[in-house]
TrEMBL record:
Subunit annotation: Homotetramer.
Location(s) in or outside the cell: Plastid, Chloroplast
The keyword Plastid belongs to this UniProt entry's keyword annotation: yes
Biological process annotations from GO: fructose 1,6-bisphosphate metabolic process; fructose 6-phosphate metabolic process; fructose metabolic process; gluconeogenesis; reductive pentose-phosphate cycle; sucrose biosynthetic process
Keyword list, A-Z: Calvin cycle, Carbohydrate metabolism, Chloroplast, Disulfide bond, Hydrolase, Magnesium, Metal-binding, Plastid, Transit peptide
Protein name: fructose-bisphosphatase
E.C. number(s) listed in UniProt: 3.1.3.11
Length: 407
């Protein structure tokens, strides 16, 4: 019987050495067998739980150690999203081609002064704006990468007069809209610039192929209708920031993620996972040089921001002159960015399709808000490719406060 008792309680002896000192003849006497079972039943589970907790802690430590050396690049991340069913293989290829274009543009910007790519190109785009050399070159880089992907059907760019149907496409139906260089006025002074892009599926009105008798005008109309979709139809959107670091920020409708270019590997590496914009912030970004051209309601809002708050400090004014830079800072620190209409620009200065809509999509994925002062940016359907709109975008509490002033 003693052997049986020792066997039945062996898990106690070997699971916790401290229990040996507590054994006595009482535990080994046959008349106390049932009591021994009761005693063992009382403290054995606690010991087992302690051992399980210790094992779990060891596993967690191993995970932390492993994560310290883990690097997840953009390609791996995209493949995981594809495996999870969030995107298909074709969209993976399109996004990869855009990331390649961004790497090329980043390299050109870093060497622009050395290889004489600064200054004006001597041409004017469809909006009547003077084009920089890198505006034209970056547009070509984007277009070439998207064409070579074989998965893009239509391209709409700030630098193109009308959307372009991609002849080289094999099976692509995706519509890609982009601003190849945002903040190009900053190029010559080596300040922050960026690229913005949005990806749509084909418009249902354009799924039927044109007849052989179709004219060029009809083909152009098809491109325009297919590209002019509201931002809520976006399948993915992102931007690439070119500054002290090159940061590729992307959303596929499942949160917002940022990848930083590691020059040692030439790869975008995941550095910001599931970004959430702060609910409020103490930074505002407006071009206050236009203050006297704004309406009185907006002036009162700006006057309010300049007044000391409960902490005795007013909001801080920050203006980079690059939408990508403004939004990137806001996503990390919170605040509000505004590019309102004024007496000289009745519809604002930024383009709805390839600037405001993708950025609004990105900010909303991070928990922020974007409005033109009256309605949600993503609900506006463009009537024209280069249509402009006022925009206020940022932390949800800050946008709600702004809307009260504008109401």
């Amino acid at each position: 019987m003693a052997e049986a008792c020792l066997s039945s309680s062996s898990h106690i002896l070997f699971s916790n050495s401290r229990s040996i000192s507590h054994l006595s003849p009482f535990h080994l006497h046959p008349s106390n067998y049932n009591k021994r079972q009761s005693v063992a039943g009382n403290f054995a589970p606690a010991i087992r739980c302690e051992a399980a907790a210790s094992a779990a802690a060891q596993v967690e430590i191993k995970k932390k150690r492993r994560n310290t050396f883990e690097i997840e690049n953009l390609t791996t991340w995209l493949l995981k999203q594809e495996q999870a069913g969030h995107i298909d293989a074709e969209l993976t290829i399109v996004i990869s081609s855009i990331s390649l274009a961004c790497k090329q543009i980043a390299s050109l910007l870093q060497r622009s002064s050395i290889i004489n790519l600064t200054g004006a190109h001597g041409t004017v785009n469809i909006q009547g704006e003077d084009q920089k050399k890198l505006d034209v070159i970056s547009n070509e880089v984007f277009c070439n990468c998207l064409r070579s992907s074989g998965r893009t059907g239509i391209i709409a760019s700030e630098e193109e007069d009308v959307p372009v149907a991609v002849e080289e496409t094999y099976s692509g139906n995706y519509v890609v809209v982009f601003d190849p260089i945002d903040g190009s006025a900053n190029i010559d002074t080596s300040l922050t610039t960026g690229s913005i892009f949005g990806i749509y599926g084909p418009d249902e009105q354009c799924l039927v192929d044109l007849d052989d008798d179709s004219t060029l005008d009809q083909a152009r109309q098809k491109c325009i209708v297919s590209a002019c979709q509201p931002g809520r139809n976006l399948l993915a959107a992102g931007y690439c920031l070119y500054s002290s670091a090159v940061v590729f920020t992307l959303s596929i409708g499942e949160g917002l993620f940022a990848f930083t270019l590691d020059p040692a590997y030439g790869e975008f590496v995941l550095t910001h996972e599931n970004i959430k914009i702060p609910k409020s912030g103490k930074i505002y970004s407006f071009n206050e040089g236009n203050y006297d051209l704004w309406d009185d309601k907006l002036k009162k809002y700006l006057d309010h921001l300049r007044q000391p708050g409960a902490n005795g400090k007013p909001y801080s004014g920050r203006y980079i002159g690059c939408l990508v830079g403004e939004i990137h800072r806001m996503l990390l620190y919170g605040g509000v960015y505004g590019n309102p209409k004024n007496k000289n620009s009745k519809n604002g200065n930024l383009r709805l399709l390839y600037e405001c809509a993708p950025m609004s999509y990105i900010v909303e994925q991070a928990g922020g808000k974007a409005t033109d002062g009256h309605q949600r940016i993503l609900d506006i359907k463009p009537a024209q490719i280069h249509q402009r709109t006022p925009i206020f975008i940022g932390s949800p509490d800050e946008i709600e406060k702004l809307e009260k002033y504008l109401a």
